[in-house]
């Protein structure tokens, strides 16, 4: 029914290639345009849970994902002297570390490997304008080349510029008042297979996680209402990070040095995307571009994969894209709204201002760790709330 409908997807990370995988399987002709010159492989661990896990199983990549496990054995809360205050081993569905814990870059690579023969990838380009016609959508790239497609789907992340081309400023970017920097640093002798979480006064958190590449994935987050940082240059952003790190203690000196030396510090404000519509005419959006839930939920990857699977499936079953978009949105929106609900106190609870606040966080963590049900997520996000595949129906579309 759908053979050779031409679809352009913007963004080659998680949502875009997953959508490409399924659309190609259903006989669509798919092109993915990615702004970077090659796949962007940075970032820390992503976890694939519940419905996301069911989808990777259907895609035949679950074993590869499990084999690429980071090797993290759990989470430790440490104090300024690197003494362990609380410990959450990686066991059971409620732990911070999940069974299918994979580096973002490894997952991006796996998805690319499994789509590159059926999907056309165009790197180093992005969309600069779109023109919706009754029977096609005309898309122009930054090399001035234009091409007609049947559909255009933006899957280019929380700061999607394609989204703006389609919807203007209608979608809302709801800033959580939290900034996060992710970067990869060399492993040292004192690093273990535990993720180590350090809460510093001044609403700052450092998190060091081991990986399966012999390096350490560092993250540094802090509370701030200042909205200018995302528009600053890399140099200015590094200065902001170093200023914020000052006096934090623990691995402060190590991170300071690494920020200076590192060319791939991914720094952004943590924001949710709230959009009243996900489609307009022949164009639409999925993944973080459409409904970023923030990394605080631990559900960005699952939402991106579920959205891609359902959208491709609905398109495969219906001739009219309008009907497919409506059917998809009906399934997907309640799930997105549920996931986007942050528990009360997140992210402020995990980023206390004072020394007293820090000791409270560590004490509460220790208390939670000592209980049989280790609900660390209740304090630090709703990651523990494992959204099982039963919470959203995943029809088989074949
Ligand atoms: C470099 C990087 C590191 C990340 N690190 C983490 C992390 O450590 N922890 C975490 O929880 N989440 C991280 N994320 C976000 C995480 O990948 C997403 O929340 C989630 O997996 C949903 O993915 P997505 O495909 O919707 O969007 P994203 O993963 O954000 O991917 C968007 C893709 O679109 C590309 N792109 C952007 N603008 C354009 C454009 N105009 N034209 C074409 N392509 C464009 C980007 O280069 C990227 O490849 C990171 C994202 C990126 C891009």
From TrEMBL:
Q: Which residues form the FAD-binding domain?
A: 6-339
Q: Name one GO molecular function term.
A: FAD binding
Tell me which Gene3D superfamilies the record gives: D-Amino Acid Oxidase, subunit A, domain 2, FAD/NAD(P)-binding domain
> What protein does this entry describe?
2-polyprenyl-6-methoxyphenol hydroxylase
Q: Organism source for this protein?
A: Chryseobacterium shigense
Note the Pfam families from the entry: FAD_binding_3
Q: Entry's InterPro entries?
A: FAD-bd, FAD/NAD-bd_sf, FAD_aromatic-hydroxylase
């Amino acid at each position: 029914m759908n053979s050779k409908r031409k679809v352009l997807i913007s963004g080659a990370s998680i949502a875009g290639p997953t959508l490409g995988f399924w659309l190609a399987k259903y006989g669509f002709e798919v092109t993915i345009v990615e702004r970077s010159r090659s796949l962007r492989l940075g970032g820390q661990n992503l976890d694939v849970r519940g419905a996301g896990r069911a989808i990777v199983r259907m895609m035949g990549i679950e074993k590869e994902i499990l084999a690429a496990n980071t090797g993290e054995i759990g989470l430790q809360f440490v104090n300024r002297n690197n003494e362990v205050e609380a410990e959450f081993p990686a066991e059971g569905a409620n732990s911070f570390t999940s069974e299918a814990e994979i580096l973002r870059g490894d997952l991006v690579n796996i998805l690319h490997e499994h789509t590159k023969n059926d999907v056309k990838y165009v790197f180093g380009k992005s969309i600069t304008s779109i023109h919706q016609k009754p029977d096609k959508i005309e898309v122009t790239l930054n090399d001035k080349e234009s091409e007609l497609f049947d559909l255009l789907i933006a899957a280019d992340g929380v700061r999607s510029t394609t989204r703006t081309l389609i919807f203007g400023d209608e979608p809302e970017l709801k800033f959580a008042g939290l900034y996060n920097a992710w970067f990869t640093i060399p492993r040292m002798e004192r690093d273990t297979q535990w993720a180590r979480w350090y809460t510093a006064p001044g609403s700052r958190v450092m998190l060091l996680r081991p990986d399966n590449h012999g390096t350490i994935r560092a993250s540094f987050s802090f509370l701030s209402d200042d909205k200018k940082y995302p528009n600053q240059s890399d140099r200015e952003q590094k200065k902001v990070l170093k200023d914020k790190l000052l006096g934090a203690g623990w691995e402060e000196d190590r991170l300071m040095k690494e920020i200076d030396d590192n060319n791939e510090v991914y720094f952004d404000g943590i924001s949710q995307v709230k959009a009243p519509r996900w489609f307009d005419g022949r164009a639409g959006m999925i993944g973080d571009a459409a409904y970023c839930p923030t990394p605080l939920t631990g559900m960005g990857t699952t939402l991106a994969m579920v959205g891609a699977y359902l959208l491709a499936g609905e398109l495969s079953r219906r001739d009219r894209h309008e009907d497919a978009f409506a059917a998809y949105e009906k399934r997907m929106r309640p799930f997105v709204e549920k996931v986007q609900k942050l528990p009360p106190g997140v992210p402020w609870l995990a980023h206390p201002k004072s020394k007293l606040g820090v000791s409270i966080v560590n004490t509460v963590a220790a208390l939670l760790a000592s209980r049989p049900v280790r609900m660390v997520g209740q304090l630090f996000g709703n990651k523990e709330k494992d959204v099982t595949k039963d919470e959203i129906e995943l029809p088989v579309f074949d």
